[in-house]
Amino acid sequence: MLNAGDRAPDFSLDSDSGKAVSLADFPGKTVVLYFYPKDDTPGCTREAQAFSAALQAFADAGAVVLGVSRDSVERHRKFRDKYDLGVTLLSDPELAAHNAYGAYGEKTMYGKKVTGAIRSTFIIGPDRKVKHAFSGVKVDGHADAVLALVRGGGGGAPPAPPTSTKGAAAKSAASRTPAAKSAARAPAKKAAVKAPAKPVTRSR
Fold first, then answer.
1. Cα–Cα distances in Å, from 167 out to 115, 161, 173, 193, 196?
2. Closest CA to 123 of 51, 30, 49, 21
3. Torsion angles phi and psi, residue 25, rounded to 5
4. What is the pLDDT of residue 184?
5. Helices assigned H by DSSP within the chain
6. Most buried of the four, 40, 54, 125, 201, by CB within 10 Å?
7. Residues with Cβ < 8 Å from 148, sequence gap 6 or more?
8. pLDDT value at position 125?
């Protein structure tokens, strides 16, 4: 499998639009290239829907998203139309791109070793080098993680989310409750207890 820093192999694959697509078609763009096992299966559908929902955000960050599987162009079209997908789907029945990127081979499914497509994603920079590579992808939350990397420049860890002000507001509100006020005053009350007064001696 390719790693960060490797040169991304070019490819030319037919898309769901009927046109051939290659890396050279996106000069100056970051390309998110993701490989998935099969159209219209639960995990692959959720992944395609997540990337489709985030397409505008990827475009705003200067990136395009391409999905690749062994499925035919016709099957891609049915998949696209059934779920109203926006992501471009590429057909790679001969596994040319899969093998070039290391996205096909032995994997474990339900505890058994099988050979097939390995769910993988590659963030390819405008210089056509791999900025980040994911292998054995877990679908849920994946598109968001990839978008964070693209926004951050395509490498390293996703940027930390901004600190929420809700926690501080909740603490402040809690400090104004009667119980909190009582607890806050407790030390002061204890400190205010006076020692017993000494008897007063009067002179005769």
1. 48, 14, 10, 36, 46
2. 30
3. -75, -5
4. 43
5. 42-53, 55-60, 73-83, 96-101, 142-151, 166-174, 178-191
6. 54
7. 158, 159
8. 97
Alpha-carbon Rg of the chain, whole angstroms? 30
What is the CA 197 to chain-centroid distance, rounded? 71
SS3 label, residue 131: strand
Residue ranges per structural domain of the chain: 12-151
Task: Judge contact between 38 and 71, C-beta under 8 A.
Answer: yes
- Whose structure tokens read 């860890």? 157
Q: Which positions are catalytic?
A: 44
Instruction: State the pLDDT at residue 1.
Output: 87
Mean pLDDT, 10 residues at a time, over the chain (204 residues)?
95 96 96 98 98 98 98 98 98 97 86 89 97 95 97 53 36 40 43 43 40
What would the two tokens of residue 87 be? 């992501």
The type of residue at 167 is G
- Dist CA 152 CA 64 (whole Å): 15
Q: What is the amino acid identity at position 67?
A: G
**Lookup result for tokens 């607890």:** 183
Q: Is 26 exposed, middle or buried (0-12, 13-18, 19+ CB in 10 A)?
A: middle
Any idea which architecture 12-151 has in CATH? 3-Layer(aba) Sandwich (3.40)
Sorted by sequence, the CB contacts under 8 Å of residue 154 that are 6+ apart come out as 30, 123, 125, 131, 132
Per the CB < 8 A criterion, the answer to whether 47 and 36 are in contact is: yes
Distance of alpha carbon 80 from alpha carbon 86, whole angstroms? 7
